[in-house]
Amino acid sequence: MTDLSPHERKESTPLEVTPLSDVDLEAHHGARTIADYAEHLLFHRRIWVLAVFCVASIFLGWHASKIGLEASFQKMIPASHPYIENYLVYEDDLRKMGNVLRIVVENTGGDIYDKDFLLTLKKINDEVFYIPGVDRGNMKSLWTPNVFWREVTVDGIVGGLVVPDDFDGTPGHVDQVRRNVSRSGTVGSLVANDHRSTVILVPLLEKDPQTGESLDYGLLSERLEQLVRDKYAAEGVRIHITGFAKIMGDLIEGVRSMALFFAVTFVLTVGLLYFYSRCWRSTASVIFCCSLAVVWQLGVVRLMGYALDPYSTLVPFLTFAIGVSHAIQNINTMVAERLGGLSSVDASKATFRLLFVPGSVALLCNVVGFSTLLVIDIGVIRELAISACVGVLVIIFTKIFLLPVIMSYTGISERGLQHRALKVGEKNKSLVRRVTGDFLSRLTERRWALGVVLTGIAILATSLYMARDLRIGDLDPGAPELRADSRYNRDVGFLSANYANSADVFVVMVKTRPDTCGTYPVTSAVDRFQAVMGEVEGVVGIQSLVTEMKGLNAALQGGNLKWYGLSRDEYISSGTLKMTRQDFYKYDCSMLSILLFLEDHKADTLTRVVAAAEAFAAANNTEHAEFLLAAGNAGIEAVTNIVVKRAERLMLFLVYGVVALLVWWEFKSWKVTTALILPLLITSILCEAIMAKLGLGVKVATLPVIVLGVGIGVDYGIYLYNRLENYLRMGMSLKDAYGETLKTTGAAIAVTAVTLALGVATWLFSDIKFQADMGLLLAIMFLWNMVGAILIIPAVLSLLLPAAVREGSPVQRAGG
């Protein structure tokens, strides 16, 4: 292919030449001063700039290579909420009801009353006991000394360990275990209803008491698989494991496969960028700077003392995606300047000046969007927000400062220039491009614009109606983050089907004066509470000190069920209390716990339980007994839902408010601000409507996506209007200016949206369901943001801008 002469380039693209002075810099003197200083520093000291970036990259790259993947139970809880503060006061006493693993050991060949099975169960119990992170003193199984039986006989109450100390596997001893289990009251909790499996309850320590290091959930999960599930599967048993730690372990295992999806996204991005630019130089420059942003982000995050977790693994991809979204505009602008006859260095300078204000404002909008997540006081969300803000801030350095310097050396290849000249030239325009351009340009005509705006408002209204069904929290049983047919969710299904006590435990604490937790004023209040909560839909079982005391009262009276109740006599109550296990009350008897076993942890179930418990507490709290919410895995999740629900609307209000202010600051026009914000509003509500229809609740995993929709969308709008305004200042009509904008910035937006959507669409094949769901939502939002920017913004401008601007009268600020 022969090179085009400068004269031929100008003749084929008369409208591609952009002014070297940008209206943003003319309107913002402070920004112009900064841009002048930065331009001088960058392009007169290019070698030094590259050297500084090289040193910084080596330093941050080394730290990035050391970053780990971890999870934390403490970071998943809203620590400042009053209910969680109640839990933290009694955390040591409630540890066995919080972060707990349930290891179900099933005999595939019969019931549990078998010599080989019971001896294998002991081996598994001992294996688990020595796994780092296990709270050994609170472990519970048929083989632990804290599980015993009681029986009323003519000689009084007798009891002992369920599995006797001298158990040797003889038929007599096996029969004795059978009898002991039936007398222990553990059927439905530790032993399955059909007696074919039994549970090992394993409370976990968040920090190792010897080393002080945080629990490594990924390593814990691997040890459970290798030392328990895989090791004993050959001995005639089947292992089922549930609990927060196992969810995190499975998520960490699944997240490691994200490297493959990132690689696919990387390859797709390279291919589509080259297809768009036909220039390996600019493609390589953009990919290098965007990849460098990811390295910097990971390095800075590690220096801040943070690590990646299963929910924040989305952030490096977002950093890469946002970088690509912005960097395509650099290619676009530099090609235009080169076609205007400038050298590579001068074109790079012009690109820097033209994109300095819109690029900075767009990136600041991204920072604002992610920083609003900080209003949610949940550790994992706050760390995600900080990590995402860091990612966007480093893009300012790699995209705005570094990329123009690199491209001043690499430039644009002749093939790339020829491709753009042919693409925008009138003589060489394809039929599809001509029809598309003519059709989209007509959106600036008021009759077409009115139809587009009304359609957008109709979509907004329909989405609002559909979003009414959006819920806060989980909408499915088990772990919705994982596939319904995942091994973990199958294990949860097995536990629910075979045990009366579910894995979803909601704990209510009853605060009393010391040494009074067993007195009648307290126990009678607890008894009434249990009666009320037992009628709440979703509560399938209740355990507490009161339940055990009532049974002991009957036992002490020869097993007569007429005595199954509470005694008003303080001496009787005190005697009964001494015979109970200390599982349900604090050592000084100043607090007792009530365990509500729930059918599931769906949002509606938790809402009903919280409402009923709060209502009872409000009406019945006295000086003797104060009912405090909430602990247990279900209790903590209920509080998390409350915090997310309260913060969600505030978060969206803040992000829209600050983004609108930034857009207004840049363009000094409420009309332009309205045009740019309306598509974003539709995007947010549409996202919520889609989530409602897909059965996705608003929670830790989905919140960042809602914020991202605002950030990426405002990028498109700012770049689009920035280029459009430059053409309007040249005296073009709105229709002509928009037509020229479509050739450059509009095409870049379309390529960006398609590239990013295809990249995240690969997540649909992930084993982790929430990653697949996020991939679908992000793909829809990337594409819809592109549609909103290209269709709605010009239509709104056509209805709001003055007639003189629409018809082509040059003004200082087209927005007015």
TrEMBL record:
Topology within the bilayer: Multi-pass membrane protein
TM region(s), chain numbering: 47-65, 258-276, 282-301, 313-332, 352-376, 388-412, 448-467, 650-667, 673-691, 703-721, 741-764, 776-801
Record-annotated SSD domain positions: 287-409, 703-799
Gene3D superfamilies linked to this entry: Multidrug efflux transporter AcrB transmembrane domain
Subcellular location, record wording: Cell membrane
PROSITE patterns: SSD
Keyword set includes Membrane: yes
Name listed for the protein in its UniProt record: MMPL family transporter
Lineage: Bacteria, Pseudomonadati, Pseudomonadota, Betaproteobacteria, Rhodocyclales
